[in-house]
What we know:
Elements: H1 3-11, H2 16-20, H3 27-58, H4 62-65, H5 67-86, H6 92-111, H7 116-142, H8 150-179, H9 181-202, H10 214-221, H11 226-245, H12 247-255, H13 259-286, H14 288-308, H15 313-328, H16 330-341, H17 346-398, E1 400-401, E2 414-415
Helix pairs in contact: 3-5, 3-7, 3-8, 3-9, 5-7, 5-17, 6-7, 6-9, 7-8, 7-17, 8-9, 8-13, 10-17, 11-17, 13-14, 13-15, 13-16, 14-15, 14-16, 14-17
Amino acid sequence: MNDDTCDAIFDGGKGVEEELEPSTPAWMAVLSLTMGVFGLLTAEYLPASLLTPMAVDLGVSEALAGQAVTVTAVVALFSGLLVPGLTRRLDRRVVLLGFSTLMIASNLLVALSSSLAVLLLMRILLGIALGGFWSMAAAVAMRLVPAALLPRALSIIFSGIAVGAVVAVPLGSYLGGLYGWRSAFVAAAAVGVMTLTFQLVTLPPLAPRRAARLRTVLEVLLRPGIAVGMLGCVLVHTAHFALFTYIRPFLESTTGVGPDTLALMLLGFGAANFVGTLLTGWLLERSPRGTLVLMPVLVGVAALALVLLPASVTGQAMLLALWGMAFGGVPVAWSNWVARAVPDQAESAGGMVVASVQSAIAAGAAAGGAMFSFSGISGVFVAAGILMLLAALLIALRVRVDAPQSGSQNAPALHL
């Protein structure tokens, strides 16, 4: 049977898919995916909290050290689009275990790196795991629980984002202050080992199915209204990661905070991020588009206020909390937008979002580094804050999210 025949069977919408739907939920396997999300997010974000000591130890500028985030995101962009297809004949359990192994290897080798070049090469391994995992997470979840329980399973899996935001950056800053920046990556590798072990025990065999193809992703992007929505998503994430990558040098240069105070401030950011994730569901029920607009407005205002208002630890901690709470709902809100805008091609749209967000992370870190070198850390925050407000304006004027018409799976959900 060739690939086109397989596609035709699956595109029928019933029969084969219904036979393969699990009758009972595999909650432990779902939890193992949550651990994977947490481990990958922790590893990706660690440089943001360790930028200064990494730069000093490796003998490079903070702007160059920040490219540890850029290279991971660039590789993840292509990995999210290509890896599902390249591994389409492999058991998905084996592929997921391979991603966890790459995460462990990357963190350990980064901890042992003797130069920035070696460190960046090792971050490529993380990028492969990151993009591949994110592109497959929702599709794998569909095979672990009955369809009626899928929303609950996805909420559990993606809660790893919020937990990672609470724990990863402040813990990295704290460990880096006590034992050096390399210890934080060793700790991230230990998380990876626990994740791999748990996945070995809980993940069932997952025979390969039809993977989303690059062609389908491009077709989804060409639908009316989708491109402008994705542009808004990219702009918001670009501005956020331009800010987030250089958060440590900004706080140190403006208030002179030490590692302990910095860790507490970042912990407050993460806790507020978690609260924002919970609040977003309530906001989306009332106004999906208003939620999409409000969040970048709050982040943009917080970024500009950090630069324009008199610097104090208390004031900056409060602004960081506002920023964290506002951005906490961004992944939830844009996932909701995608599900409403492309209900018939959710998996392909998921690959599109992975590519968009990872390209935004890379662009944000790279642009932030260029702006840092050109106009200093304050220039990064001013430029990113203005970009956030422009993104909010674009969303307000050009993007509208409407509830799908009842009884129509393929009703358009986004209009210009």
